Amino acid sequence: MTAVTVTVYKVTGMTCGHCEGAVTAELTALPGVTSVKAVAATGEVTVESQAPLSEDAVRAAVDEAGYELAGVAV
């Protein structure tokens, strides 16, 4: 069984369900991503992937959706 990598990112600018959908769509398109859950209320986006993702790739996808990646949530 393949291990799943779960990373929680902070994304600024999300305010509604449409925002969540836009971020989810862009991140889901990244190779290896198996699940994305964006929550506008907290600004957190949980990404499950088959391997760790490049922060540059995540940043580019979030930028494409029109938002800003603030980094990995701690």
Folded structure, characterized:
- With 74 residues, the chain is α+β, with helices and mostly antiparallel strands.
- The chain has helices spanning 17-28, 55-65, and strands spanning 5-12, 33-39, 44-49, 68-72.
- 31% of the residues lie in helices and 35% in strands.
- Helix 1 (17-28) crosses helix 2 (55-65).
- Strand 2 and strand 3 (44-49) form a beta hairpin.
- The radius of gyration is 11 Å and the shape is globular.
- It has a four-stranded antiparallel beta sheet with strand order 2-3-1-4.
Brief summary:
The chain is of the alpha+beta class and 74 residues long. The protein has 2 helices and 4 strands. The model has no long low-confidence stretch (mean pLDDT 95).
Task: Fill in the keyword field for this structure.
about 70 residues; alpha+beta; four-stranded antiparallel beta sheet; 2 helices; globular
Strand order of the largest sheet: 2-3-1-4
The overall pLDDT, averaged over residues, is: 95
Which structural class matches the secondary elements? alpha+beta
The strand count comes to 4
C-alpha Rg (nearest Å): 11 Å
Helix content: 25-40%
Number of helices: 2
Shape: globular
Strands, helices and their partners?
Elements: E1 5-12, H1 17-28, E2 33-39, E3 44-49, H2 55-65, E4 68-72
Antiparallel strand pairs: 1-3, 1-4, 2-3
Helix pairs in contact: 1-2
